[in-house]
Structures are given as C-alpha cells and as structure tokens.
Amino acid sequence: MVDFLIFIVFIIGVFFIGQHIQKKHCASLEIREQALLYMPTVVGRKVFEDSEVEKAWLVHGAVVVSGDYFKMVYAGLIKFFGGRIRAYESLLDRSRREALLRMKESAAADGAHMVVNVRFETAKIGSMVGNQQGTGMFEMLVYGTAIRMKSQ
Amino acid sequence: MKFVARQLTGNVNVSPGGEGKPFLKGLFVFCALFFVVYFVLILLVDGLITYVPERVDRALAGVFAQHIKTPSSWEPQRERLEGVLDGLLETYDGPQYDFRVDILENEQMNALAFPGGNIVLTSTLVESLTSENELAMILGHELSHYRQHDHLRALGRMAVFMGLMTVWSAGTNSNPLGSYVVNSISTFDLKYSRRQERLADDYGLTFLITRYQHAGGAVGVFEKLKKDYEAEERIPFVQFFSTHPSMENRIQHLRQLIRENDYQERDQIPLIFELPELPANSDSDPGS
After folding, report:
1. Among A121, A144, B47, B122, which lies 20 to 30 A Cα-Cα from B157?
2. Considering the entire predicted model, what is its pTM?
C-alpha cells in the first residue's frame, strides 16, 4: 500500500512538472511560428511564385523527444482499455511543430524564401537504449527543399 | 497563385481536454476493476479450497519434498520430534496427510507447514526448545494450518496474484501501475495471513491442553521466538507489512486465553534428544 501511495505522489509531481514544461514549450512554439509565418512551407514540389529560382538546397529539422513517466503510465492505462492517448497526441504534435520550426529557422538563416516538398519521418530510438520498458524515445525528422528566388 | 500567411487557430491533432482528469478516471476504474476481480477470485479460492483433491496436494508435496531433507546428523532429533507429533495426531481432526517432521539447518527460528503434511522446523528452533510442551505448541500450531487448509489457501492466493500480474503485464508491456496496484492489494492478504496465524495459535494451545492437560510451554516458546525476532519487530510500522502478528501480541493473546479459560501452567516434560551412539573405537586411528 505504501508503494502505491509513493507512486501516486511521485506521478502527481511528474504530472505537474510535465505540464509546466509542455506549457512553456507551447508558448515558445507559438512565438516562433508567428515569427516565421511569412515563409511558405508546402508539401508540393513546384514553386508557385512566378519569379525565377536562384538557389535550391536541402534543409532539415530534427528533434528527439521522450514521454515522461506520467505519460508512460497514462498510456499503459489507456492501452489496457483502449482509446485515444491524449498525452502522446500532444507530445507528437509538439515534436512535429518543433522539427518543422527548426527546419524553417535553418532555411530562413540561409536566406530561403520558402521550403517545398516537405516530408515528415519518424523513427523510434527507445529500443536502442536499455530495455524497451522505459518511457520510449523517438526522433521526428522534417526535411524539404529550401528555395531562394531571384530578387524582383 | 498567391501565398497568404495565416496562423492556424485550434489544433485538430490533439484531443480536447486535459490529461489529469482522464488519468484519474482511468486509474479509479482500473483499481476498482482489479479489486473486484481480485476479491471475487479470492472468495472462489477460499470456497473451493476444501474440494482440492488429495492427489493435487500430494503432487504439490512432491514438488517441495525434493528440496526438504533432514541432514543425517539431525536424524535422532527428527525422530524425537515425530514421536511428539504422533501424540498430537491422536486428537487431530483435520484433513489426513502422511505427516512428517523435517529439520532444516538455518540460523533463524522458524517452523513451516508444507503441502502434503510436511512440517519443517529450523535447527535453531529445535536447539532452543527445552520441553516437549514447547515443541507440542509449535507442532500444534503447524497442524492447525493443515486443519485450516492454510498451505493451499496461500498457494491459491499466490496463483491469483500471479495471474493478475500476468494479465496486466501481457496487456501493457509491464507498465509499473499494475504491479503497484496488485502489491497494494496484497496488503489485505497480510491482514488475512495474520488472522490465520492467530487462529493457528488458538488451535495450537487447544492441542497442548488436550495432550498435556495444562498450558505450560505455550507462552515460553513464543518468548524465545520474541528474542529471535526482536530486531526485526523493532522497525517502525513493520507490523503492517508482516504475515504474522508480533510476538508480543501473540504472547499477550495466549496469556489472555489461558487466563479466560483458567488453564493451569504446570511442570513441563524436558525435551531430551537421544544422541547417536559413537562407534566403539572412534578415538583410535581409523587407518590402523
């Protein structure tokens, strides 16, 4: 019984720390997304502006994330009964947005006007570290073709 | 085509609502389900335990028997213990087994009831016993466990416990939550175990009275055990996590029973072991 109480106290602590980190990350994402809103990022292959392309190069953004202990236990609980795992939905969504932003920031730093042919990839890396019973880690990779137009 | 920058509002990829509330709800449902399943299974085990065929008990005994064997140096003492056990069996009215006593070399004072009627006493406990009455109290206590089917109940409860753990682990890749909940449930088992031990003490005293017509030795043997378990029992709150009541508790309970029933405590029969005879020429050179 004491084990269970320690576990509950611990998981409540982890939950609040995790929520705080998530909130901070979401706020940071919104500010950075707003700043790069001017840059088109599309999955299409064709450059849709009329100007001529000056330069095209590969850009990518990657992020490695891990769910916290609370998310793992929460997911385990949902897994038993079935249903949507909201804790992982938000984690994956933040990782997609973070990877996309890193790619856009990298493209913007080199003077790109847009990124086309954007693709998302994900790879589980949790199984490569220790046993597979941990919180699980994965990489979110976004890549595309950065385009700089000739000045008009 | 003209690109128009537009900040998205809302997020369709994340389900609405927080994480804490559904977690607490899920945890409550999960705990409730586990508790209900556990207690239903335990009730079934307790109800069906008396119908376990004797051959199952014998088969279980076979599993343990291969690991329990009295060392030859303790054989004379073992025979003496069996003599006392035979006396107690004259008034034993529980399930019939091929009762046997074995001695296990161990530093802790303890006695155990294994399936198939195999009672095991540790060598340290045997060495500490000074009277036949003390030994009868210990053996009576263990016989009571057979009378209550406690050895089978313990195995049944263990099977339920392991079964729930297996179901949880298989469904969730060993998520730690299940083990915490199941371990918490086992706290109720400890309370049950302490109750069974208390009942076994009561029956043990009854055996002693029936056999010797007085209660001498009943409290004495627990006072010896108390000294052996003193360090363990001094740990705060250890009683909540123990399978047995504390020795002090058991002593007080026995004293109360003796007082209430007006049992006498008379002289006890000394427990003398017949030592094996030494070979006639044991002091001579074996090679000569």
Report:
1. B122
2. 0.65
